[in-house]
Amino acid sequence: MVADDSPGLKSLEALIGGSLLENLSKLSSTCLAIPANKDFHFLCNFDEFKLRIDEISGSSQCVLETIGGFCRKPMRYSGDVVGEDAYDWLVNLNDEVLQRIDLDLEDTMKKETDSKHGKAKVSFHIATIKKPQEEYKILVNNANVPFEHVWLEKKENNLGFIHPLEKLSVMDFVDKDISEMKPVEPLSLEGIPFKLVEEINDLKDLAAKLSSVDEFAVDLEHNQYRSFQGLTCLMQISTRTEDYIVDTFKLWDHVGTYLRDIFKDPKKKKVMHGADRDIIWLQRDFGIYVCNLFDTGQASRVLKLERKSLEFLLKHYCGVAANKQYQNADWRIRPLPDVMTRYAREDTHYLLYIYDVMRVDLHTVAKEDEKPDSPLVEVYKRSYDVCMQLYEKELLTENSYLHIYGVQAANFNAVQLAIVAGLCEWRDRIARADDESTGYVLPNKTLLEIAKEMPINVGKLRRLFKSKLPYIERNVDAVISVIRRSMQNAAAFEPVVQSLKTWHPGTVENDIGGVRTTVSHGSGKVSVDVSEEQSGGFGALPSKRKFGSENKANEEVKVSKSKPACVSKPDEVIILSDDNDEYGEETSEPEDAADSVSETPFKGPDVSINVKTFGPDIIVLDDDDSDDDDDSDNDSETGDGREREVERMNKISEQQGKFMSLKPGFLNI
Length: 669
Prior knowledge:
Elements: H1 7-16, H2 20-33, H3 38-43, H4 47-71, H5 84-116, H6 132-135, E1 153-154, E2 161-162, E3 194-197, H7 200-211, E4 215-223, E5 231-238, E6 243-247, H8 255-264, E7 269-272, H9 276-286, E8 293-295, H10 296-302, H11 310-318, H12 338-349, H13 351-369, H14 375-387, H15 414-434, H16 438-441, H17 444-453, H18 458-462, H19 470-474, H20 476-488, H21 494-501, E9 509-512, E10 515-520, E11 525-529, H22 531-535, E12 543-545, E13 557-559, E14 575-577, H23 579-583, H24 591-597, E15 611-612, E16 619-621, H25 639-654
Parallel strand pairs: 3-6, 4-7, 7-8, 14-16
Antiparallel strand pairs: 1-2, 4-5, 5-6, 9-10, 10-11, 12-13, 15-16
Helix pairs in contact: 1-4, 7-8, 10-13, 10-14, 11-13, 15-17, 15-20
């Protein structure tokens, strides 16, 4: 915006001989008043009329060009007169200016409100930070092909990879003698050495230190908003005597080299909290695969604590009140502020002591309840399953547009659905090429709003924006082109619209006597997950677990569960308890940003339950920090009732039609 007393504005008013507002009003009236028909061309034969029109056109064009220069939006003027093109341009420019004023006022009012209530806001996204991928020359492969686990052996059929844990047993990691163990009290943050690891020599020293200890605590800080697959920003490691923070940006190509074997070593205990996503981030960014994990988040569930978050554990066991507002911070920032350094250290500094106390508590519970399967063993089973996850890259498939959360409940017609498909493919291409999240390029809510309104010109498109979207601003003409071309392909989406109309409203997940049944709409299948009974309520995980060292060679127990990871196979629906939200971990984006980042494959109707999206291909059901999953009230249901319900769900699934598949690239843009 130009200030009222700015030299530029005074120069402009001097040029046009009056106030800017008065002349803009005259200009708009003139643009509307000029007849665009045969009468106008007839009147142009008269010299007096033609002379007057030339005067108006000349001064008006000069004003428009000057305005465009100030707003950095030059007018694309063509023709001999100021007509409809100029008017449309002026209207669009006016819309944009008003929108900017709106956003600035909204931002100012929000800051004033936060200041009034004493809220120190921690920004989840600082736009001025240079992308680490560029700053530190971090290479990523966003090609639309499956992720290759190059550090793992391939299976004989070449259809998967062999995790190092498959050669080990859960019982190899279980502590043998807990009864005589005494927890080691942690020193204060100020009373223990701290090292920020930024150089290769420092990383070598850290590796040497970890090689000399039997256990260490680990945590990661992550950013999902400004990269396509996500980016590990920091790695925190604590031993009994020292704290470390590894700047993974500066040592990106070296972290795996020096730490890979240490994390894989089955003789060294790794203690983490809510490690579901940390495990796959380590695989994706550094080729690190974890063996011998104790997840304090899983332990809190087995112990049925009041809450499962790390914040709660710090308060409960250590009397430390953690400042959790920094979990929403932009961890790409460098240099790291002192308050964020302290927060990062707290995530691992006390974790080994919590690990000690929890093992004692688990041993005590086993003696009191006389359970056949030790609670401590149960924690290691669950931690084993967490480690067995393998990272999978999000892929653009022929039905990706149907996986955007909310699209199937929107009741879109063929034209609107075609626009969703076109924009989904467009933003995926942009995001992969520029290493941005699809939500940063074009948020889900905005994409669906565009499809709903079907704007076919720039002015109407801009009026839909409720926030600043840099990629749309820079590519507004391309977006309009995508919309128009998509609309021309609308007929191909009619069968999809008809298929969507056959879905019946309902929930995707039902608890029937403690057995979870999930209908995968469109696949004709119902999966039955009995993980509640088998593992005491832990969110389901696909695993191959070996129990008992004497049966390593031939005793393999396969548990069919869904997978709590940030990514999944493109055609899977993944639903799990919101462990990490309870943990208070890694929810680094606020609600609007989380929606922006996540592209949730979701087949079937919309679900009217508490659903949170955290990343590609994942739906998280809010557990609300309760222990209901461990003590279901439905356990008294009979087996016959379960079978009838499963049969009913199968019949519903069989009645569903199949979606028509459209190949990516149908827009040819």
